[in-house]
Design goal:
alpha+beta, single chain, globular
Length: 167
Amino acid sequence: MRDLVPMELSELDHAPVRFTGDAVLTATPEAVFDELGDPSLWLPLMRRSVWKTAATSGVGAEREVELALFGAFRERMLVWDRGKRCAFTMTATTSPMVVRMAEDWRLVREAGGTRVSYAVAAELRPFARPLAPAMRIVMRQLFGAGVRALAKRTRWSAGRVRGTQGA
């Protein structure tokens, strides 16, 4: 893996490539949050997710994930607030396309369940920048399927998920 420059939370809103989504799941924020710890159980294309630090959660904890087609990434947790928010930055990758990358997952309790909002922020290498529109389409499908799988894993029907996705 090659090292990446970590993103700070304050940079996510202004990243050159940004993808957001939003959905309501009929589950508690705690149930949804608990599933975020192992994306290999719900995110399509995720081959593995392994914690690499003694801590398997919490700010500063690191895990490695591997996605078919996208490569492997080492992630460092920036926010770990059970039932509310999980954010992490990528610190290394095998992907030739990424310079910097981070994700931010927020959970808000509301009538009938939990609003799940996520943002994926990235800076791409120059040769990959023209691919950004296609990447947004792929990410929209990948994360949409992931949220539906989260709904199933939290024991409620994926058909009860309603949501929006932005650019």
